[in-house]
Amino acid sequence: MPHFTVTKVEDLEEGAAASVSKERESSLAEIKALIQHSDELDPSQNSITGEHSQLLDDGHKKARNAYLNNSNYEEGDEYFDKNLALFEEEMDTRPKVSSLLNRMANYTNLTQGAKEHEEAENITEGKKKPTKTPQMGTFMGVYLPCLQNIFGVILFLRLTWVVGTAGVLQAFAIVLICCCCTMLTAISMSAIATNGVVPAGGSYFMISRALGPEFGGAVGLCFYLGTTFAAAMYILGAIEIFLVYIVPRAAIFRSDDALKESAAMLNNMRVYGTAFLVLMVLVVFIGVRYVNKFASLFLACVIVSILAIYAGAIKSSFAPPHFPVCMLGNRTLSSRHIDICSKTKEINNMTVPSKLWGFFCNSSQFFNATCDEYFIHNNVTSIQGIPGLASGVITENLWSNYLPKGEIIEKPSAKSSDVLGSLNHEYVLVDITTSFTLLVGIFFPSVTGIMAGSNRSGDLKDAQKSIPIGTILAILTTSFVYLSNVVLFGACIEGVVLRDKFGDAVKGNLVVGTLSWPSPWVIVIGSFFSTCGAGLQSLTGAPRLLQAIAKDNIIPFLRVFGHSKANGEPTWALLLTAAIAELGILIASLDLVAPILSMFFLMCYLFVNLACALQTLLRTPNWRPRFRYYHAEKEWGDGIRGLSLSAARFALLRLEEGPPHTKNWRPQLLVLLKLDEDLHVKHPRLLTFASQLKAGKGLTIVGSVIVGNFLENYGEALAAEQTIKHLMEAEKVKGFCQLVVAAKLREGISHLIQSCGLGGMKHNTVVMGWPNGWRQSEDARAWKTFIGTVRVTTAAHLALLVAKNISFFPSNVEQFSEGNIDVWWIVHDGGMLMLLPFLLKQHKVWRKCSIRIFTVAQLEDNSIQMKKDLATFLYHLRIEAEVEVVEMHDSDISAYTYERTLMMEQRSQMLRHMRLSKTERDREAQLVKDRNSMLRLTSIGSDEDEETETYQEKVHMTWTKDKYMASRGQKAKSMEGFQDLLNMRPDHSNVRRMHTAVKLNEVIVNKSHEAKLVLLNMPGPPRNPEGDENYMEFLEVLTEGLERVLLVRGGGSEVITIYS
């Protein structure tokens, strides 16, 4: 402790000067005695609280409401946590981290979605309904549902025809294009799904919340219509299997005319399709749980059918199945109506015409019969329909064979006379004009269904992990199955059979069934049930999707479809879905419905990829997907330039519609700069820090105030503005400059905070520097302006960033190769502390730094559980950080704390009452500073006995005769005030707050003394301005010993969310 020597002045007042020293010593001794006495009375009383603290204030009644109404304290309010006393005034709006984490730990996915979940969090505990924790993992919750939805009717009914028509090479390309399209979409969807907690509601919620209501509503409708038409396609596929392959005799409409037979078949499809649709709607209406229960059975049918195809392909290599195909020349004949593949047959040793003869000749007699010219000149032969894997037939099937409608399916390598002949219905004919694009449109629905996993997000234990892994694995699995089947079909099945869509050449068998083992019926029955199941799933999902769109109220006339019956089933939405599906069934052709379905899903997938691309290009702060393999690392510039005035006006008017959603919140900065006498910026590193925080995105306004009269200082304002703009250009700060000339500095700053910006493009965060040297300043306006600015930002609900030791912050050319950004999360005030280090790490200067997040556990907190909850919270926020919970149990208020508080109050009283001259004030400030430094060194880690010895050192002050003579007139009054000053005892509320500052500072310095940057909650200023100077001292103590500090104060609203 510093020594000050007292030289006696021979005067009547010398006794008073001597008594000052004695009273000072007795005062310190009395404090120590009181501390020891409190420990002896109650060892469990770790701090001087309650009646003990009242003893300290006897005879010294100060305003208790400088920070908090004292009545609350006496009633034992829980806010009075001794270790967090600095933050207790705002605990109602800025709760302790432990209470926030406790709420986060109880998170469960709700069926409604993010908005309803956020509303449900505000329901009181007594009214909350018990929720079932989702337990489904990746395999059962995502992988298998995606398999079931991707594998479908096209695989069994049309893939062989696609291979036969396009050839193996082009069919492989068609499948690969479609699979790549869905894979890229799944990658984008995975990025969106891992960008926060995925609420129940699935794909529509992900897309709509990422793109906004306009695009979200359009995509939702596309997705809904696609799902509805998918139901129609599955029903048509099921009816085709039923009427063509299972019970052909069940057809209601028949025709002997070959040209009218296809029309009759369409009518059968319409009638049976409508009946199937009504039956399925009734099943869905009665109970969705029955559909979900049979989902596993339907999936098993699909898997068994696929395995039967592979088994049949392997068996065909050594024992191909016998399915002969009758050929007339090189033309394929239908075997539905012929009894033998020959022009004649022998009955009772007599050669008689076969049925085939009767189809091509006008008489059943050999003589006098007029036959088709092509029939006469070509022989009837039989070829193997399934030559097998080892036959080498793949060489014939490599190339495409696109044909117009009505053409005869021919085998190019077979011998044939060059005779035209007439068209006969016993040939196998092409029923639709084919092309590459048509085949793409027909096949594409077979790769849709990739969103089945995200639709079950509410049932997943960890949706962020399960959706990407399960969906991508399902796409890889199905892509392998499709591509391998393309090769197997081309290698095992004859080309004319592949091009035979309905299996007419193989006695009406399902073409893919002819390859399967042990029987074609495995494929027929399996595909029928799986197709029915897929139709039920579509009719279950589509109404719920429409209900979600209607509840969002994006399209007003759909509002009626948001209602549901008592059990939650969307009845009206189901009826509309059935009506739209009926339109698809009336088309009655699988080949015509499939391209419609493809268009809807392609539009939906386009917007999914667009949502991911926009988020990536805009680099919104909330865009932090855990799945990072969604784009190439390429820099394409910093945005579209040169927007016209009308576009800017439109955008500004749109911003006026309301505040941004939490997901889109980013700090829009107002940087307050201080200018020196030469109009140069005092702390240019403040702009450097702003550029690192913004990375060229969002709004930055640089503001400053010139004190004076606008008419007289207009030129200076222009010069200062140019200086700031040049500095902004040098620091690569993209923004605007705003200078205000005001009579008072505090008023100018207040005007900047209130009026900067245009319309909805206003700042939401104020950045300023710490007033260095405020203790030594002869003018108290410096720190009063600082506190006034803090109060104005709080009143305006703006966030505040205060950079302490800004000159030590790195420049844009410095890059940290390692180090930590430490976040000390004491209270939750909107999540700014979580967002800022993430934004800083986007800049090259901080990119290689690691984030460490510390939070404080009190005596009543479970620190182990807090650490788990904090890690879970950060996982949902997609922020990678090391987590540590620091335990701060109640401890004795040290003598150092009392002494520090006492000196703080003494200094405040000295400056307020004694009105020292400049010289004396400088000397007193230096005295307090030196004593603080020495006391800090001697007190931390010392025992009470050692501290007591330190306090017993004698304090002397030097007085000269000249000084005495100059102050003789005010001596009596000054000495009286000085005696009161030395007799004062510290206010207990200030002691508690100083205790918080000291304890937190010790912990922070211990953990973060080597950190590159420390981010810390900034306590709010006192409600009573009388405590302003003490508030500055508390902040000074809180941040002592730290090189770079950023004090953060939220604006009162959430700026970060776990939701996607």
UniProtKB/TrEMBL annotation:
The keyword Membrane applies. It is a multi-pass membrane protein. Gene3D superfamilies: Amino acid/polyamine transporter I (1.20.1740.10). The chain crosses the membrane at residues 137-157, 163-185, 223-248, 269-288, 294-313, 427-447, 467-493, 572-590, 596-618. Belongs to the SLC12A transporter family. K/Cl co-transporter subfamily. One of its GO terms (molecular function) is potassium:chloride symporter activity. Residues 142-314, 433-631 form the Amino acid permease/ SLC12A domain. One of its GO terms (cellular component) is plasma membrane. It comes from Neovison vison (American mink). The lineage of its organism: Eukaryota, Metazoa, Chordata, Craniata, Vertebrata. Pfam families: AA_permease, SLC12. Keywords: Cell membrane, Chloride, Glycoprotein, Ion transport, Membrane, Phosphoprotein, Potassium, Potassium transport, Symport, Transmembrane, Transmembrane helix, Transport. This is Solute carrier family 12 member 6.
